[in-house]
Amino acid sequence: MAGLKHSWIGRNQVVRRTLDSSPTLTHLLEDGYRLFLARISGPEAEADATDLTARLQNVRQRLQPRDFNCDEQPIILLAAGWRSGSTLLQRVLTSDPNTMIWGEPFAKSGITTTLASQLSAFTAEWPPLDYFVANQGDDLSAAWIANSYPDPAQLIAAHRAFFIELLAKPTQGLGRSRWGFKEVRLGGAHALYLKLLFPKARFVFLVRDPFAAFASFRHYIKSDFHAWPERPIRWAGEFGRLWRELALDLERVAPEVDALWLRYEDYLTDPALHEKLCLHVDADLRPPSELSLIPSAGQVGATQTAKPENRLLWYERRALKRALGDAGARLGYVH
Hints:
Number of helices: 14
Largest sheet: 5 strands, parallel
Order of helices and strands: HHHEHEHHEHEHEEHEHHHHH
């Protein structure tokens, strides 16, 4: 942080003479100046960090066209919360013998969210250009290198290599050539992050009637976490708010990442949507009607999941409606 003497205030001659005449006063004013800047920079930094979409754009502006070269074509299935039919769709995608779709790998670790958060610090001003070693001259021993960074392209390459090492290479070990993963906790900004790493990725976005999804979720008799351990999802209101957040955020970025948008109910009943999915991911897939219904852990049985309403109680329906606002109706779910 710049000291008071080096600020626009310190350049005033009267202020400078006052500061030079009294070290104690200088220290007191410096401390006050730091507190003043902290009051301004704190909320500003928080606003920057929470707008991941804007930060990713700042990262893109620092990259060259060659930095986007990547031949990997993962299939990335993102669903708006739990019990959305994502596992069935994952199984459909994996019915291609050449494809492995990993299921929420190391979910509590928040792999994608924590990696993406590393880029949330990028702004138009940070990191400054003189932090990059390419701009610090040939004789580094004669330069101020307290902050010396490699090119941002290397950071992106490292992120890309992480996913390849974690998911692509084990896929090859299974005798399959194409990889991907499904997630139920990621939003639109995370899709943009993955698109930044893998420009040729194929995205599939999935939503399900939030009332049916919660009716299935509630029979787990447990809570789950959107972001472990800070954000547990325990009741209808929290579930509805998360569904609204994820569904609208995925809808926002779907055109930008060229995602195939599927409603679970439509996909089950419209064979044309299955053909569309096959074309989108460029694979010959078995339709869902050919896959057996597998009860989830904690379910009474397959018929329990299949019930459309699952006997939601009145206060649960009310809490869902309040949490969803107009998001459900906007996406075709009217209750």
